Structures are given as C-alpha cells and as structure tokens.
Amino acid sequence: MKKLFFAVIISFYGIIVSAQSGFKLKISGEIVQPLELSLSDLSKMPQKEAILKDKEGKTHAYTGVSIQDILTWAKVPSGKDLHGENLSKYLLVKCADGYQVLFSLAELDSSIADKKVIVADMMDGKPLLREKGPLRMIAEGEKKPARSSYQVTELIIGSVKK
C-alpha cells in the first residue's frame, strides 16, 4: 500500500512539473522585441525576496525575479530614459483566469520609487501551488494584496494615448 501511495505521489508531481515545464511568460506590447521566458530562464536571473501578508494576516516570503530586471531585459525604458512620454507607459499583468492588474512603469522603476515588485515562483521556500502558479506577481507593501495576482501568464507594455 505504501509503495502504491508513493508511486501515485511521484506520478502526480511529474504531471505538475511537466505541465509547468512548457510554461512561457510572455512579454509583449510596445517593446522592441516580444519575449517568452521559460521558468528555467527566470530561475537563471537574479532572485529577490518580497514579503506579503495573506488575507488572514499571515506573512509569507516570496522569491522570484524583480519586475524591473524582466523589463530591463525586454528593453523597456527605465532610469534616465524614463521621462517625457515614457512616463505615460504602463505594465498590464494578465493572469490565466482573466484577472488583470495595472502598474505605471514609473512606480516600478527604482530610480523613481522604492516599490518592490517581483514575479515569484516560490513561497516560503517551496514552489507555488499549481492553482496559484507557476508565477505570482507580488507587490510588497500594498495595503491590499489585490495586485499580487496569481497565475501570471503575460506582461504587456502599453502607453496612454492622447
């Protein structure tokens, strides 16, 4: 019985890993070259930690890639290039269930704000649960976790049109 239970657990884990191994985070919109980043690509980027309280008030430590690092890799304007019309640009985060959240590029840039926002794949040292991952946007320090969205699939750069 123990062997059967162990085999079922290993098979279930294999299904989750294989389903997520084909996952690609899409970065598109008003950028020079659209990107698709695999979980492996993201794991090779510098990792950051962000803290977030859940709805019950329990604190969790999330690990992932800074959104600023991802946007820099996609050649999205930042730092000294984030002025003039570039200040009207935004990041739209799309999730698998249709949920969407919006950030201005200015609030995500460390030369303008001290906001810590990461695309996390780990919570408290463990991979995100399947129904919450494989990626979650974490916006540390916000009073409500409404923009810390689950199952992130795409990052779209846009700008406000006149």
Describe this structure in words.
This is Oxidoreductase molybdopterin binding domain-containing protein. The chain has 162 residues and is α+β, with helices and mostly antiparallel strands. Helix content is 22%, strand content 36%. A five-stranded mixed beta sheet has the order 2-1-10-5-6. Strands 3, 4, 7, 8 and 9 form a five-stranded antiparallel beta sheet that branches. About 10% of the residues have low confidence.
Output mean pLDDT. 87
Which residues sit in consecutive blocks of at least 5 with pLDDT less than 50? 4-19
Rg is 17 Å
| Cα shape | globular
SSE ordering: HEEHEEHEEHEEEE
Binned, the helix content reads 10-25%
The structure class reads alpha+beta
CATH superfamily placement: Oxidoreductase, molybdopterin-binding domain
Number of domains: 1
Please give the count of helices. 4
β-strand amount: 35-45%
| CATH architecture assignment name | Alpha-Beta Complex
Main sheet makeup: 5 strands, mixed
Q: How many β-strand runs?
A: 10
CATH class: Alpha Beta
CATH fold node name: Sulfite Oxidase, Chain A, domain 2
Strand order of the largest sheet: 2-1-10-5-6
Determine the N-to-C terminus distance. 67 Å
